[in-house]
Design goal:
Elements lengths: L18 E3 L3 H27 L2 E2 L13 E2 L20 H28 L2 H6 L8 H12 L14 H25 L1 H6 L2 H5 L3 H29 L1 H10 L1 E3 L7
Antiparallel strand pairs: 1-4, 2-3
Helix pairs in contact: 1-2, 5-8, 8-9
Length: 253
């Protein structure tokens, strides 16, 4: 039995153990584009950060200014070659990689949001319902996750409130923030949009916010991967590769 949906509202049709289609092609393409794009941007960003691994607030920041975060000790590069692009020390090459994939990130995000708005995915699947935002409902979902109690049957096709808040935070919070702060740090864009660094509190503040947004994306990735492993990695990864997902069976009392 096959049913076309993208984690939409579950009904009484599909049962546990059945193979259904879970993710649309647009979602799968955007997901794997992001995997490659963000990996390259993170690794090239670490190389750029190796050039000056200190973060400040305000407009200016240099070696003798007070930094709110210092990565590494003394003059050592905090990130090893296996974690950076390129592997050898070259901030200039890293910027080429970083900016090239930034274009991919912005274009893919814009296309995904427009398409998801047009087909109703954002409204239907990601927008929290008022009842889901009640403290009791939120606490119930937190407890279920803490107990590793995952939905079964048709309920597994719907995003729970924690997923909606996490995905919404990435789509409308972290990704836009990392893009805007990246724009503020670009000399070319800064010349045409000088007000951008002012709004963000200065060039160094934009750099710090860019780092924090990237750290937030890494944290999301780590939690996301943990949930994939705990929920059943073969089934979860297959659904994101092919769209096919086997509904978890209801546990017998």
């Amino acid at each position: 039995m096959s049913q076309e949906r993208d984690a939409g509202v579950a009904d009484s049709g599909p049962q546990g153990g059945e193979l259904v289609t879970r993710h649309r092609l647009s979602t799968r393409l955007w997901h794997w584009t992001n995997v490659v794009t963000l990996a390259v941007m993170l690794m090239s960003g670490l190389m750029i950060l190796n050039a000056h691994p200190r973060l400040y607030w305000g407009e200016y920041g240099a070696n003798f200014d007070h930094a709110w975060l210092v990565l590494g000790a003394d003059d050592a590069e905090p990130f090893p070659g296996w974690a950076t692009i390129p592997a050898h020390y070259s901030p200039a090459d890293a910027r080429i990689w970083h900016f090239a994939f930034a274009v991919v990130l912005v274009g893919a995000l814009a296309l995904y949001l427009v398409w998801s708005l047009a087909n109703g995915h954002l409204r239907r699947d990601l927008m929290p319902r008022l009842a889901e935002l009640s403290p009791a409902h939120l606490w119930h979902d937190i407890v279920d996750h803490a107990r590793l109690k995952f939905p079964t049957g048709a309920a597994a096709l719907s995003y729970n409130i924690l997923q909606k808040l996490a995905y919404g935070g990435v789509l409308f919070g972290l990704l836009p923030l990392v893009i805007v702060t990246g724009m503020a740090m670009s000399p070319g864009l800064d010349a045409g949009l000088p007000w951008l660094t002012v709004v963000l509190g200065g060039r160094q503040s934009a750099r710090s916010l860019h780092f924090l947004a990237a750290a937030g994306l890494v944290l999301f990735f780590m939690v996301h991967m943990a949930m994939v492993v705990l929920a059943g990695p073969i089934n979860e990864v297959r659904s994101m590769l092919t769209g096919w997902y086997r509904l978890p069976r209801e546990k017998q009392p």
